[in-house]
Each structure stands twice: as structure tokens, then as C-alpha cells.
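Journal club side-thread
Mid-discussion, someone asked how the predicted structure for our own chain would compare to the paper's figures. Pasting it here so we can look after the session.
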Amino acid sequence: MSRSIMNFDSAVSIREAPSADYPSTPGEAEALLSAIDGICADLGWSESNRGSFGAVIQPGDKVLLKPNFVLDENQ
């Protein structure tokens, strides 16, 4: 029995978010968007004319983003 093995890219990009909560000020929203843009650029997902995820999401695709928020304390 043969198994096909998919290529796996283990690239990682980490950015600090301004808060663990939803952005409550325009500055926090801009900082969060900047972090997302930076992650996408690091991973090669962005295209200048199509945005942060332009290289991996085609027009008409449906996408679910699951952020992994990690805190150093329980709330």
C-alpha cells in the first residue's frame, strides 16, 4: 500500500497583539491589522494588489480564521 505524503511548510511568524480583547480604539485596531499584515508578509501569503492573504485566498473562496490567543493568566 502506498501513501502519498504532502509537503509541509513549517514556517512560523509571531507578532504581539495590542490586547487579548477586541480592539476598542482606532489605534488598537490599526496595530492588530499591522500585526496581521506582517504575519502574512513573513509567510509569503500577501500580494501587493490583493491584500494580506491575496496569495493564498482566491476570489470566491470561503475562509475561517481561528486566532490562537494565548494569555499568561486565567481570566
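Post-session note: Residues 25-58 form one domain.
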